[in-house]
Fold this protein.
Amino acid sequence: MTADRHAAQPPAHSGAQGAGVAAVRLGLVVNPVAGLGGTAGLKGSDGADVQRLALERGASARAGERAAAALAVVAAAHPGIEVLTASGALGEHAVRAAGLVPRSVYTASAVAGEPTATTAADTRAAVAAIASSGAELILFVGGDGTARDVVAGLESGSPAGGVAALGVPAGVKMYSACFAVSPSAAGALAAAWLGTEALPVRESEVLDVVEEQLRHGRVDPRLFGHLLVPFQAGRTQARKTPSPSSEAAAAASAVRGVIAQLRPGVRYLLGPGSTVAELGRQLGLATTPLGVDVLLDGELVLTDATEQQLLAEISGRQARAIVTIIGGQGFLLGRGNQQISARVVRALDPAQPLIIVAPEQKLIELGGRPLLIDTGDAAVDASLAGFARITTGVSGTSMYPVNAPESTLATESHP
């Protein structure tokens, strides 16, 4: 379903909030632990034990920073607006950090200030309270698990006609199509929603997988509901699509093209994905499903590595990362491979930090949409933007555009 949010009635404006500032209410809820397990190689962040282990492995919460980054774009267009939110790390802190005015309509029962203190029940209750308080658009910061909680919260708190929701990507896994491609893109969409620009909304599926299955290399997304999501080409993320079995031969050919590029003495970080897993199969190696391994001279010297372990392994040594494209979405970094972080990218060969491998059909299915980088570091993302060489066969390559998140702010195309 796709409909124009502003088609029937232009937005109202409130003089109480300042001239030109929209009276349409914006909501925000943050999952403070979203993405915590990504750099730690834990394939998710659900559960107190996983969160403690992630912290022990040197991970840090980034959801609050990504929330503030999205709201900073809103604040630039609509300074001083009030945002309906929840207490502390559930949203209030990020609203204040962006220079906007928080109105907390839900207080978590957990201990304030503890990054692992809030629960999924808090997220659901916060969303219900924000919707009941009159929000027309709720930004939520997290991954697919958070999106599931938003669906549940809206079912109990949404008024007739529904409330729109948009994900600010901060989780480990984001298969659903309810996310913006980056925090800045989410902020741009929210700013447009608050302004006079007509934005269509579409009913987008919320998908999630069981994290324990992910840790054993099994990906079987299930449908948990739908959200009404503001849509704008280049800013709203597409749903992840699986690799069909018919691509197996093409992927095998592309991998042979990468193997021909391998050089002695160079450490290769093998990212997740079925195409890179095919590389391990051809080399006779037991690579980690959905993890990051390190290959040196035909042998695995590190398996299922964390960000910290990768940094220690490649520091002062020649290294490159071999990554593939997330089907349907086009992401190279920032979705499911957060172990290859901005700090890790900086430690790679500056002349060719990434070797990108993908069957040509994956590029065709993008329909001309660029590949995407979202490490959370603007300088690193910008350094990887431009045109990248994609290995598509034994002797086949394609040059394809790569966008950094900030470039989405200049995208004014509409569906």
